[in-house]
Design brief:
single chain, 209 residues, alpha/beta, Rossmann fold, Arc Repressor Mutant, subunit A, 2 domains, 5-stranded parallel sheet, 10 helices, elongated
Length: 209
């Protein structure tokens, strides 16, 4: 199996060396350097911080801009309010510093590389609570679901996925063709989707089709 390419970022040289020594000798991983060109080749970024701050969040977003790969975040401790900030910064796994070694660190990095997440149970519960609050306080009042799509948009996308054209969709839903076009335009613009096939693919990945 091809090794997972990992870039390590740490708050100090000693911690960086410790993380490298944990991952470097293992055949599952290939460590890449931290400069921009090398970091762009990484599959996963392991990022150690002291604590989550606005400056750290900015740095995480900058790393995401260099290469949008899954991130494993290591810190001395996490507060409940750190969870959504971390997720927004493409963090898929969070490890307390005391557990970021040996097999547990390796397993977490491999999970991140395969598209899975890993969080302490108490943080996972907080994340679910925050998502529920987001749904109830922000999305539902706007007529949106967790995918960011309205019911009308989902109805249009279902017919679009069946190969219907604008006129057929309008006839099926009792809309004007202009209304259908406006729905598609608003949806693709808001979600930064390139075209109708991209919109259908997005809806399928979001699990609404």
């Amino acid at each position: 199996m091809k090794p997972v390419r990992v870039v390590v970022h740490a708050s100090d040289p000693i911690t960086h060396a410790g993380l490298v020594s944990c991952l470097g000798p293992r055949s599952e991983f290939e460590l890449v350097g931290g400069d921009r060109a090398e970091a762009e080749a990484a599959d996963v970024a392991v990022v150690q911080i002291d604590r989550m701050t606005p400056q750290v969040a900015i740095r995480l977003r900058e790393l995401h801009a260099v290469r949008p790969v899954p991130k494993v975040l290591i810190a001395s401790g996490f507060k409940n309010e750190d969870v959504l900030t971390a997720v927004e910064c493409r963090v898929v796994a969070m490890l307390p510093r005391g557990k970021a070694a040996g097999d547990q660190l390796a397993a977490t990095v491999l999970a991140a590389a395969s598209g899975r997440g890993a969080m302490p149970p108490e943080l996972l519960g907080e994340l679910l609570s925050q998502v529920q609050r987001l749904q109830g306080e922000v999305l539902t009042p706007l007529g949106l679901n967790a995918s960011g799509l309205t019911k009308r948009e989902v109805d249009v996308l279902k017919l679009m996925a069946d190969g219907r054209d604008t006129a057929e969709i309008a006839d099926e839903l009792c809309y004007s063709e202009r209304t259908v076009k406006n729905i598609v335009y608003a949806m693709t613009t808001r979600l930064n989707l390139r075209n109708r096939p991209h919109a259908v693919a997005y809806a399928m990945r979001a699990g609404v089709l």
